Structure of Nickel pincer cofactor biosynthesis protein LarB:
Amino acid sequence: MTRKEIRLDFERDSRLGFGEAALCAQKTVPQIEEILRQADDARVPFLLTRLDPEKHERLSAAWRERLDYHPQSRTGFLGFASAARGTPDVAVVTAGTSDAGPAHEALRTLEFNQIATTPIFDVGVAGIWRLMERVDEIARHPVVIAVAGMDAALPSVLGGLVPGAVIAVPTSTGYGMARDGETALNACLVSCAPGITVTNIDNGYGAACAAIRALKAMQMIVERQAVAKAAE
Amino acid sequence: MTRKEIRLDFERDSRLGFGEAALCAQKTVPQIEEILRQADDARVPFLLTRLDPEKHERLSAAWRERLDYHPQSRTGFLGFASAARGTPDVAVVTAGTSDAGPAHEALRTLEFNQIATTPIFDVGVAGIWRLMERVDEIARHPVVIAVAGMDAALPSVLGGLVPGAVIAVPTSTGYGMARDGETALNACLVSCAPGITVTNIDNGYGAACAAIRALKAMQMIVERQAVAKAAE
Amino acid sequence: MTRKEIRLDFERDSRLGFGEAALCAQKTVPQIEEILRQADDARVPFLLTRLDPEKHERLSAAWRERLDYHPQSRTGFLGFASAARGTPDVAVVTAGTSDAGPAHEALRTLEFNQIATTPIFDVGVAGIWRLMERVDEIARHPVVIAVAGMDAALPSVLGGLVPGAVIAVPTSTGYGMARDGETALNACLVSCAPGITVTNIDNGYGAACAAIRALKAMQMIVERQAVAKAAE
Amino acid sequence: MTRKEIRLDFERDSRLGFGEAALCAQKTVPQIEEILRQADDARVPFLLTRLDPEKHERLSAAWRERLDYHPQSRTGFLGFASAARGTPDVAVVTAGTSDAGPAHEALRTLEFNQIATTPIFDVGVAGIWRLMERVDEIARHPVVIAVAGMDAALPSVLGGLVPGAVIAVPTSTGYGMARDGETALNACLVSCAPGITVTNIDNGYGAACAAIRALKAMQMIVERQAVAKAAE
Amino acid sequence: MTRKEIRLDFERDSRLGFGEAALCAQKTVPQIEEILRQADDARVPFLLTRLDPEKHERLSAAWRERLDYHPQSRTGFLGFASAARGTPDVAVVTAGTSDAGPAHEALRTLEFNQIATTPIFDVGVAGIWRLMERVDEIARHPVVIAVAGMDAALPSVLGGLVPGAVIAVPTSTGYGMARDGETALNACLVSCAPGITVTNIDNGYGAACAAIRALKAMQMIVERQAVAKAAE
Amino acid sequence: MTRKEIRLDFERDSRLGFGEAALCAQKTVPQIEEILRQADDARVPFLLTRLDPEKHERLSAAWRERLDYHPQSRTGFLGFASAARGTPDVAVVTAGTSDAGPAHEALRTLEFNQIATTPIFDVGVAGIWRLMERVDEIARHPVVIAVAGMDAALPSVLGGLVPGAVIAVPTSTGYGMARDGETALNACLVSCAPGITVTNIDNGYGAACAAIRALKAMQMIVERQAVAKAAE
Amino acid sequence: MTRKEIRLDFERDSRLGFGEAALCAQKTVPQIEEILRQADDARVPFLLTRLDPEKHERLSAAWRERLDYHPQSRTGFLGFASAARGTPDVAVVTAGTSDAGPAHEALRTLEFNQIATTPIFDVGVAGIWRLMERVDEIARHPVVIAVAGMDAALPSVLGGLVPGAVIAVPTSTGYGMARDGETALNACLVSCAPGITVTNIDNGYGAACAAIRALKAMQMIVERQAVAKAAE
Amino acid sequence: MTRKEIRLDFERDSRLGFGEAALCAQKTVPQIEEILRQADDARVPFLLTRLDPEKHERLSAAWRERLDYHPQSRTGFLGFASAARGTPDVAVVTAGTSDAGPAHEALRTLEFNQIATTPIFDVGVAGIWRLMERVDEIARHPVVIAVAGMDAALPSVLGGLVPGAVIAVPTSTGYGMARDGETALNACLVSCAPGITVTNIDNGYGAACAAIRALKAMQMIVERQAVAKAAE
């Protein structure tokens, strides 16, 4: 593998509002280190996702030292500055204990992009009182990321109760006809509560990027209104 | 088609507690009429299911006259005597308007077998207050048949709230990834609420038979206890 | 079918920001007319979707007269007041001529909810210059609905170029391995451009509702900021 | 992982008639130990399912000592009191040797909930005399759990012979087109014997819960009749 | 369509023991008539399969007159001489009324090839006594064609009871997870009774050809033994 | 696991012409040893299939010594007497080197049942001259087992060239859209050469049993003819 | 539908070597007529594909008169000049009569683009002598389009015998596990003969375009060599 | 395993223009060594594909020494002479870092067959400017192999921009609905850019063979023209 085989997109941040990140799942250790080297040379903060603890261990000590690594989310930050403060814009809600991995991936991606978040875990519909207790709190967030596997009834129920953007992350929990998350995914896509959108299975990173896009959309409108006002 | 190609199972009632019925969907009009003739000769009441209005129209006038036909459920009764009375043992609950067909198939099958029922329609979870208003009423029924399509969140939510038998009937409502009911079916099978059992897609008839089996099971225990008591 | 079998959710508007709508695809004409009657009694404007021209023809003349019906989108408005004005917040972009149906469903749903839109049709990537000519115009919209079938490369390319919310609507165009839209759907879900969210196949209505949610989220933030300011 | 990420539903027992249990398959050892700690604090007996021998080994010695662990069923009991006595209400029937795992999961779940059972193993239909010898015995049980993989013909044949509730558990035995149990599942769903209901693949736990629900339904009727009598 | 676009394989009979036949399902009326013309010119008896009554009606009167057409099996014979006599070698057994079509296709194909058959209809396992009554009769046939849809338990049960060749024809009866015969097919492929072989869904013609091959195999052995004897 | 959980079918040989065998893939070592013990007690020769070398190693030394084990076919014989002699009745033909495993499973099963065989390996259609050289030899066998993966064109080509019974064994060779043998299986099921029957993927054992059934069928006819002659 | 909703790509010819064509399957009659109008205004010859005879009939008489329409291929030419002459570069080979539709679509597309072709029909491998007779003729063509459904063994066999480019067009012929062409497609993709490439099911048009690309590639090399020579 | 079980096709080179290669994935080490022995005896250069580093390590030292092995592509050359020189005819283009494996397999196969290539890596459409920078360079190649996973938008975009042969290699990168490459494969098959052909998932070897066939086709035309000229 030579340096020329990898070409990062460092302008993504200015174009889209969030920088490039590298999905490490199918990359070799030399490929990941080359990516870190290019990011470091360009002096841009960089996010690694799907970096298994085993693979993380195989990175050189020098990189491991510089990387802010979080095993449950399998994410690593290079050159991260500081977390967001203020009222959280995004709630990350999970149905069960087994959904924690993708939820943490979303939380860490939002943290890396300096978005404040509220984690609300283990409120699945099998004991619906757990959810009902916290509905008002959830509904105050402009963006809700709902993480659920198996039958993924949580996003449907939430979609009927909260007014903001609802982004469903189906997860690969369960067995048999859970089909590694396909049933959860399809249940989200055909949800009887309208206006829910969906990401790939276990894609906490993608849901966080979608949340950033939604917040960016708001910022665009606010800026447009400011321009319009100034023009009056 | 000759008479010998059809052989009905008239002892099923004494063996199982409900008589044989004929699924008309893939049968020809002459086959259906032959079945009615055999049932009539044997003087057993007989239930037809999946008899489309168009096919019903093509039966001879003589049979049409004798058949108690109900178009929305696509069922016909031959030689039916009288409905059940008393406190209903089975609630048939639907999520949306489009689930009415299989729900009526279940209701009619139970009626034919003299089981009293409570229909509770259009209480899907997208507006969960509709369901919450009626949960206590539903929970008083020993057997609940939950009919729902699309993401089929209704049986999951019900399964966490009612103590009796919950039989889910996934329906073929919806489009795209609803996949003619497969998503609803799979969501029911992997429900996060335990102890829900499931029938084939749109199989209101099968759910009714399962309800009859559950009631039969109770009767067996009661009889056994009576025998035990008598033996004391 | 009796009146009790249908129960509409008229408070949805105040709860979610958009009113209930009825998917007519698997409903009978009597069911649709009963729904219109209830909406009319409640004096709420009402949206019908997936109302085929043939089924529309079978509604009573009285209802047909009062309904603002649009055949290509298969939508009908009851009691609609007036369209939105001002700078459009949502661009609806299609890849090819055959994607027009779901795109019009999204446009009409947004119109019904008084959101101004920009339609941009037939800019699929097979002739990428068609898209490149209009990228800057598209990128100025806070929310972009990208409607595409077959390989659905359009949302991926757009996702790398525009900063706002990108909602992909896969469509059932094509044949063979297009699999009635499943390939387009899956391609959107695994898009190499991050932060794209996806709706069910051909679900222009759902994409419009998601756009309304994203705009609602913006309004929530603005209101929160106003409250915070007032509190200073 | 913090304590707040897990929230158990200890009222489930009073609501549904069986307590919460934890599916350990996709949980980490720290998550399982936290669950045991919460259950222990609340002083409720607790059931663990899908706890592989390897994962069981990795629990702390203190928990291992207190846990009544059964490797073939992969279940563990915490704080279990005593087994049921009396005439068994549930027969658990298997088709072949490879179906023993899910059958033992059902038997242990019933034991934990103090239901008496009859295990009847290895009576698949390829040598139908093995089944015929025991049909009368099986038919005396109000509830029959039929565990079978491959073509799952056993529940169909049983469904035509026994009058009580028949709950089919398809298993993931076999290879090739057995498709990890999907063929068995689908065969059960479309069984030609009516009134069979089905659980997810290998879901012995769910079948046991469904059996408990059926017995609970019976109890509800008996209580209702007692109340009615008292009111006379 | 020109004559050159169709090229029949008239030597198949001498090579394989049964002549070429034409599957009419996806052929146009002109294509079918051209095939009949070529067969007629070559003076070979010819078999048409999957010729729907509607398409049969659209053949020219001259061909219709010469064709021995049987609607339920959708087969037509051109130039057929006489039926077989003697002890039947092949039993064609069906599970239910809806399986009659493919069973008749097999029966007619065997008749066309002068093989004597025994039809045994409607002996599915849901009422297993119907099958048990006739097992000895079935087991006396060297070749058994078992035609069954839905869960296709019949071939499995037969496979455990009869010693000769068992050829399963899964059928597309049923609905929902019957999946147009795929569940029946897969159930046959993973049957717990060994040595069953399987044809495509609804392929009565193919099963008949396989039966002819099995009988041909027998003839080869007999001839070989005769040669061996003569050589002594 | 107790002795009562396993019940073998030792009469299968007299009923079907081949004895019971045990599929070891999903059985534990104690289960396999219990099966051997029962077979040994009953003094019947016994066949084990899908016994991986690793699992074979874990059997007790006593059983390993008594077992005639063949690693490539993963089969073991207990109490096997002697091989067949005479002209082979069954040809086992493979397309490629990777198909050898299931082919050897078929060969060993036939050997165990004292049927003489001809192995013909590596004659797939990509270099059709390899097949053409040996077609006449293959065609002299009454029964041909054709073992092929990937596109499984071999059974189709053979089916057009040989007159006897053709039993196709699709194999799980290949990658990507080979889908672990499903493509090979489906290609065999829809083969354009009629009268081919098919077994489950990699099921060399089942194909051998089907061959034994076909030979048994022949024997039944010969015996019937002898009886008829004697009766003259 | 307004004119702005359709935007054709008239520069495609100069860019790619073949002009834009319109797939009419999911287009309305007004959309098709608008496309013809734009093509006519631009004075470019234009190709319509998948234009069913019924839809063709519904075009205005004026367009019908100007269109060179061919029903079996469902193609129409607008403004076509003259056919190619000279030695054919492309052979279009079919397995069976039912594959004629996509084969004619390929032939017409090549004709429209002035490529000379050789049609070779009905040479499937079930009677392999039909193919062997013509192999040498086929092998002389630089590009071979192999059109086959069901098990699609033809492209595999051809791929082992001809040296030029082999483009497989799987077709939707057959029933049951032919799965509308998916089995044929997968069999082509995993063909044991290397270097075969594949198009979508029934995509004769795409195969023709691929053949044009292959011929264009040749032309590019020849031109490059001429330039190189001139530069010497 | 005996020598007779493997039969190589050494005439393939003269017949097709490229020699036989062995797919090592499902072959044992003894089988691979036997293949090398036969190739060595025949003195033909030989290509091994899908030879994992682990399996390579297990070959005998003698073979390892003689083999030119390349781990990332998992290919080995036996008896390879020298690389091609001159202007590259084939560009191998990848979308992302994870697609490098199949791309190197294609590059190595072309190198083995003495075709000059241009590798162009990491130009996927999520940052389309990376692709646009190099389009002119790519378009100068007669044959383009486009290697892409996930949504595989790269081949579609390329197909609209380059005139020569475009061979798409879908890869198994991604997770969830990427379905091990099936989504990429289907997206390529239904690409909106016409004339793209497709190979099996990850099949870099097959794409290289297809490129060789396309170049062979060119050579055939050139030779034909030379013959024609000479004949003048």
Notes: Residues 88 and 116 of chain A are 4 Å apart (CA to CA). DSSP finds ten helices and nine strands in chain A.
